[in-house]
Amino acid sequence: MHIASRCAELLAAALEFQGPSKADCRYLLALPPDSLEIELTRSVANTVMRRRFRNEAILLGQIGIDVFPCPGGCQFCAFGEGHTGFTASSLALEEILQRAHAFADGGDLFALFLMAMHTFDFARLLTVVSAVRRELPRHTQIVLNIGDFDLARAQELKAAGVNGAYHVLRLREGEDTALDPDARRATIGALREAGLDCYYCCEPIGPEHTPDELVEQLFVGIEYGCFQHAAMRRVAVPGSPLAARGQITEHRLAQITAVVALASLHSASTRNIAVHEPNLIGLTSGANVVYAETGINPRDTAADTSTGRGLDMAACRRMMYEAGFSALQRGDGTLIPLADVFAESQGIAGPG
Ligand code: SF4
User: What are the structural domains of the chain?
Assistant: First the structure.
């Protein structure tokens, strides 16, 4: 069997938990997804991450709480001002709590994500966070997916019970979005300074993004010591300006997921790797996290994504089982064996 020596060397180092350099990542991302080198890279990333994370997986749930034409103006997003078909609406607190229960009542939710638009009502957000915190079990964390905020707000959110925030300097931020790249970075700095976990992602990946762009963007998460790194492809949302640029395959996404996972060996703070949207190729290429979704979703034109693109908890749980993970980790570090979860979902007794 012949494999390029550069690839063989960097994969051997990865098996010793040494991450590839930026130049190595560029090299891997420029190879065809169906090359032997990349099929091996996915396999090594899968092996290394399962060793790093003890073959444990994580389930996350996201609720979109508000929607309106968003001034973020992201040209790939279903809510961007100027092209969205959505009008303003908000979930009532009771509805948010009901949906929070639907995610958490299975007892295996690591964290509940609350998602709003780029601009948001901070007082309402604090009210929602406090109410959700009271409802959720201690083993489920709360993470926000909102617009920019400063250190004072990050500290207030932490005091209200927030554990982390999803915040990303996106690919072509400021070009394909109306947002300021410096403000995105400043928010990541603020949330880290406040002691919140940073959930980062290489996103939203389209066919036009070069290896150079992908590498520079994904290393920002490593620079900030992200708790979670991830890869997400851009979905060609009907009516969004970037839909015409097309969509990468799950196979290419898995290649990028593997590179993200291996690059994250440089960050001791990185505790898991996600792939969006949930898929089995990504979960066997270095990822161990998927998100279940309900309500609005920037990749979907349905008002409730659980009737559209979003997967529910049962489907995500089943996918983790099929991917061969042994247990689901909860937000307090306790574990739920996946064999038990699967047996219970089938209405048969678990193994013990
Ligand atoms: S991705 Fe976020 S910031 Fe951008 S338009 Fe959509 S909701 Fe707004």
Answer: 5-343 (3.20.20.70)
